[in-house]
Amino acid sequence: RLKRSIYELLLITIIAQVFTMFYSVTMFGSFPNWFLLNNLVAVPLSSLTLIEGLIYLALADIPILGPSLGWAFEHLVMAMVVSATYFQKLPYSYSSGISFTTLQMFLSYIVLAIISYSILSTKKGPLLFIPALLLLIIAVHFHYLNKRNDLQEIVFYSIKKSTYVEYIENAIAFELKSINVSDYSKTFSVLPFKRAQFLSPKSYAIPPSNFMDTKHGSMVFIEDFRLFRSIENKRIDIWNICGKVKPPESVFNPPKMIVLHGNVPVYLRNNWRDFARENEIYLYDLEERGMLRLKI
């Protein structure tokens, strides 16, 4: 009976993982490598927690019994958290940075549907479509891999209370500007874009001066009330504004664009809007519009 219970648990775990895998990889770009071991603990524990929680809801008002059930429920939940944390910290617990498009996800689920139908109906004819679908999934993958090599752009990310700018060329991302950007912020702002473009999650930090001269002009970074110009005697097309930087009282050679990051205070944002309006400069507010991609 114990062997059969473990077998059924593993079987249910595998089936659930297979049918949620493609959606999870598409949305989050990661796959839990230890899901079988994790679910051997998590599934019975979560079932016990659910049953105990329902009993607690029904009997919570009974003296002594109610608080005791509440204590048990709290510790069961904590056991679930401890279990999940333990498996998360194991070596190679996740395969991350996986690029998978929505089209590939739908094609994969069609393959699963055909396999499931063939098993249930014992009809083998629909299985003939699977090789063509798999080739199509692979073709989509290589299409995006080839497409990423044509990317040459500067990307301004909208990150609350932070500043992050990257230059992308030949499928490589170079970090131009980064202020107080945590790995948590990158998980929700930077990494999804890289997965969508089939780029490596890794970024190379290099001096911004290497990438300020382009055929469309140059870019300057302003921070701590100082203006950094690495290229002299050249028109500056983009001002990247972050932090508590005030607009100049006058400008001899105005830029074509001003980019405001989320860490610019509200009162200064209004000043920059007025400055851009008076000098007829296009202003892009990352806090209001999100990511900005500029092709070079």
List keywords for this structure.
296 residues; six-stranded mixed β-sheet; 9 helices; 13 strands; 49% helix
Commentary on this structure:
The chain is an alpha/beta fold and 296 residues long. It contains nine helices and 13 strands. The chain has helices at 2-28, 35-59, 65-88, 102-121, 130-148, 183-189, 191-196, 266-278, 286-289; strands at 30-32, 94-96, 152-157, 163-169, 172-179, 203-205, 213-214, 217-223, 226-228, 236-241, 257-260, 282-285, 292-295. Strands 7, 8, 9, 10, 11 and 12 form a six-stranded mixed sheet that branches. The chain has a five-stranded mixed sheet with strand order 6-5-4-3-13, with no helix packed on it. A two-stranded antiparallel sheet has the order 1-2. Helix 1 packs antiparallel against helix 4. The longest helix is centred in the first third of the chain and has 27 residues, at 2-28. The radius of gyration is 27 Å and the shape is flat. The relative contact order is 0.09.
Specify the biggest β-sheet: 6 strands, mixed
Q: Which whole number gives the mean pLDDT? A: 84
Distance from first to last alpha carbon = 65 Å
Q: Over all CA atoms, what is the radius of gyration?
A: 27 Å
Number of E-state strands:
13
Poorly predicted sequence stretches spanning 5 or more consecutive residues: 229-233
Supply the helix-strand structural class. Answer: alpha/beta
Total number of helical segments? 9
Estimate the strand proportion.
Answer: 15-25%
Please write the string of helix (H) and strand (E) elements: HEHHEHHEEEHHEEEEEEHEHE
* Overall morphology: flat
Helix percent reads 40-55%
